[in-house]
C-alpha cells in the first residue's frame, strides 16, 4: 500500500482531497502546516506528497527544495499560483507535477496515480553496461565503482539516450525531452555543452566516445551493448 501525504492548510480542501483519493491501494496522511508535515515524514514512509505552495509557516517551494536535498519522493504542487514563472520554478525545484486551483478531483486522482506509476517504474530500474552502472530510480550513477555527480539535465539526457539505445535521437527531440519543463527556450548550444560534459564523465576517451555517438546531420545515439 502506498502512503500519500497531503500538505494543505485549507482543512476543507485537505479533507476533500483525502476522501477523493482514499481507496484500498492508498493510505492518506494529512498535514495543515510544514511543521506537521515534518513530524509525519520523520515517522512514516511517504510515497508521494501533495504540497500547497502557500502555507502558514513557510513556502512549499522552499520545502520542496529542502526535501530534494535528501529524497526523491514524488511531489505534486497544489497552488493558486498559475503564472508561468511560478510553474517553471516549481519544476526547476524538483516537482513531478504542478496542479493549479481550482481543479477537478477526478483529474487530480488520475495525475496522482500517473506519478505513482512512473515512480514505481523507476524504483527498480538499474542498468549496467561495461564499467558503468546507472540506477535511475535511486538517481545513483557509478563508473568503475565510483559515484558520478550528474546535474539534473545530465541525468535526464543520459536516461533518454540509454533507454533509447540503438535509436537515433534528433537534437530537437533531445532538447524537447530534456528541458521542456524547465525553460521557455533552450538553444542547441545547451545540448552541445550537456553532451560534452556527460561524455567527460562517463567516457574513457571523451574525444573518441564509446557510448554516446554523434550521428552527423541528425543527432546522437547510445551504441554500446549489451546492456543488463
Automatic annotation (TrEMBL):
Pfam families: Response_reg, Trans_reg_C. Coiled coil: none annotated. Keywords: DNA-binding, Phosphoprotein, Transcription, Transcription regulation, Two-component regulatory system. InterPro entries: CheY-like_superfamily (IPR011006), OmpR/PhoB-type_DNA-bd (IPR001867), Sig_transdc_resp-reg_receiver (IPR001789), WalR-like (IPR039420), WH-like_DNA-bd_sf (IPR036388). Residues 3-116 form the Response regulatory domain. Residues 124-224 bind DNA. The modification 4-aspartylphosphate is found at residue 52. The keyword Transcription applies. This is Response regulator transcription factor.
